[in-house]
Amino acid sequence: RASLAEGLRMLPEGDGRRPAVLAAFQRQAAGLVARQDATGRWPTVVTQPGYYLESSGSALIAAALTEGVA
Fold first, then answer.
1. pLDDT of residue 26
2. Hey, CA dihedral for 13, 19, 7, 27, is it positive or negative?
């Protein structure tokens, strides 16, 4: 399993690749937060607000966002 959040955790502060990974994480996080429902969940297809809200996928998104900012 590899994610931008994990990449941030694994790359040391002085690594030259870290700024690009951090920028990508920040763009992705902003896009996800903008699509989050008032209940705190995301639709099954994140780019399609009409899809039903899904709990387990939302938990994974929330975990990745938490890991990336920790």
1. 94
2. positive
| CA 32 – CA 17 distance, rounded (Å) | 23
Q: What are phi and psi of 59, to 5 degrees?
A: -65, -40
Residue whose pair of structure tokens reads 């990336």 in the numeric block: 68
- Nearest to 1, CA basis, from 70, 69, 63: 63
In this structure, are strands 53-54 and 42-43 parallel, antiparallel, or unpaired? antiparallel
pTM (2 d.p.):
0.82
Q: Is the pLDDT of residue 1 over 50?
A: no
